[in-house]
Design a protein that fits this description.
Blueprint: E1 4-10, E2 14-21, E3 29-30, E4 58-61, E5 66-69, E6 72-73, H1 74-80, H2 83-92, H3 98-110, H4 118-123, H5 131-145, H6 155-180, H7 194-203, H8 214-226, H9 234-244, H10 249-260, H11 268-279, H12 285-293, H13 314-329, H14 335-349, H15 351-355, H16 362-373, H17 380-401
Antiparallel strand pairs: 1-2, 2-3, 4-5, 5-6
Helix pairs in contact: 2-17, 3-6, 5-6, 5-10, 6-7, 6-17, 7-8, 8-13, 8-16, 8-17, 9-10, 9-17, 10-17, 11-16, 13-16
The structure holds s-citryldethia Coenzyme A.
Residues 230, 233, 264-266, 268, 292, 300-308, 356, 358, 361-363 line the site of s-citryldethia Coenzyme A.
Length: 430
């Protein structure tokens, strides 16, 4: 296609022509990287209309509710792939061959244990520390234990660090849970699947045999798949920005975990379940719907709305089916599901939510499934972080693989005081 241009009229009868870049899917972008030469910057708090990078990993069409990972629809991946299969796809760009898959799984299993000294690191936390605070701290501390994989300019270091993070995140996540309930840590059991091993480390105790429930194992793996990556969301953008300074991979992933923790982002699944419990019964839903509409009330309907999706979040659709499957299979009759289903029905009919295109998002159903599996609310975002680690790594790797990448350094619109002279203590007001 002929080089498309956008012409920007500037103050003072000046103007500049800016190149328009086209991707393989989605909106065109206006390349403003040369705009600074005119003495102007753009202003876009929250990056509502700003592409921060080129990426080939995930495509989202918010209007149509489409989510592709390397071109494959999430609906197909969620039902036909498994999490490690998806990890290979996200990182390397293609589905693994049978041999590649076997080798990838074997390598992941080689790294599931953590350095034994890490056990002492946990001892410094109070038992009532939130699991996310432990996950954030321990992940950042990994750079103190794995100093042979910190050089981000060394491809082999990047590869080993990526495997260590994917392999050890379930082990560390389960340790956060065990520590918070005062139970002994459980070593990984590599004869189990990735999801099965996580459930084993979460729920087995030395005094009894633990058998992984295949329905729960499949639901857990599907939750991992559905949370694996989501383009340039807040936590992924945080990892990219941290990585652009050359920070080590463990520090970058710890930064992503910190950003994900917010209730507007990955903390929404925990907040959503707490909200359903606060609503308690179907007859109290209207009261909360009114609060969500009230501009003076900070209350938001957690699990609803999305910066990009102005249609059903395709992950929520798959999660909804899985939610019913798991609750039926486990014969769980959870009154919160009744509240959730009625809340969804009302919200999808209510003018406020319809006009603002606020649909249930990925977090709306995941909490109900995890609660049915026996996972405490405080662990929901930990599991989101466990799953999203591969997405963060894929984007971190993609950025470092791109020749000429620079440190991220946004500008600002300064609205502070103009220059003024210092006032000594002696001359100040009493
Ligand atoms: C995730 O980015 C990603 O991809 C994130 C994620 C991922 O996989 O990484 O998908 C995971 O973070 C999902 C989102 C989880 N968060 C929640 O469920 C928290 C509740 N949702 C809201 O906080 C909110 O919807 C956000 C933060 C998700 C999006 O916020 P925006 O961008 O401000 O939403 P918007 O611009 O579309 O809002 C439009 C209007 C606004 O009102 P007006 O200023 O136009 O009057 O709708 C209102 C918002 O105030 N609104 C809500 C609402 N969400 C938006 N009102 C009530 N309840 C809500 N949930």
């Amino acid at each position: 296609m002929a080089d498309m241009k956008a012409k920007l009229e500037l103050p003072g009868n000046d103007s500049i022509e800016l190149p328009v870049k086209q991707g393989s899917l989605g909106q065109d972008v206006i390349d403003i990287s040369k705009l600074g030469s005119t003495g102007h910057f753009t202003y876009d708090p929250g990056f509502l209309a700003t592409a921060s990078c080129e990426s080939a990993i995930t495509f989202i069409d918010g209007g149509k509710g489409i989510l592709l990972h390397r071109g494959y629809p999430i609906e197909q991946l969620a039902t036909e792939s498994d999490y490690l299969d998806l990890c290979f796809l996200l990182i390397y760009g293609e589905l693994p061959t049978k041999t590649q898959y076997k080798e990838f799984v074997a390598t992941v299993k080689n790294h599931t244990m953590v350095h034994e000294q890490l056990v002492h690191f946990f001892r410094g936390f109070r038992r009532d520390a939130h699991p996310m605070s432990m996950l954030c701290g321990v992940t950042g501390a990994l750079s103190a234990f794995y100093q042979d994989s910190l050089d981000v300019h060394d491809k082999q270091h990047r590869r080993i660090a990526a495997f260590r993070l994917i392999s050890k995140m379930p082990t560390i996540a389960a340790m956060c849970y065990k520590y918070s309930i005062g139970q002994p840590f459980v070593y990984p059991q590599n004869s189990l699947s990735y999801a099965g091993n996580f459930l084993h480390m979460m729920f087995s105790v030395p005094s009894e045999e633990y058998k992984v429930n295949p329905i729960v194992e499949k639901a857990m793996d599907r939750i991992f798949i559905l949370h694996a990556d989501h383009e340039q969301n807040a936590s992924t953008s945080t990892v990219r920005l941290a990585g652009s300074s050359g920070a080590n991979p463990f520090a970058c992933i710890a930064a992503g975990i910190a950003s994900l923790w917010g209730p507007a982002h990955g903390g929404a699944n925990e907040a959503c379940l707490n909200m359903l419990e606060e609503i308690g019964t179907v007859d109290r839903i209207p009261e909360f719907i009114e609060r969500a509409k009230d501009k003076d009330d900070p209350f938001r309907l957690m699990g609803f709305g999305h910066r990009v999706y102005k249609n059903f979040d395709p992950r929520a659709k798959v999660m909804r089916e899985t939610c019913h499957e798991v609750l039926d299979e486990l014969k769980v009759n959870d009154p919160l599901l009744d509240v959730a289903m009625e809340l969804e029905r009302i919200a999808l009919e209510d003018e406020y939510f319809v006009s603002k295109k606020l649909y249930p998002n990925v977090d709306f159903y995941s909490g109900l499934i995890m609660k049915a599996i026996g996972i405490p609310t405080s662990m929901f975002t930990v599991i989101f972080a466990l799953s999203r680690t591969v997405g963060w790594i894929a984007h971190w790797k993609e950025m470092l693989d791109q020749p000429g990448h620079k440190i991220g350094r946004p500008r600002q619109l300064y609205t502070g005081k103009t220059e003024r002279d210092f006032i000594s203590h002696a001359d100040r007001q009493p």
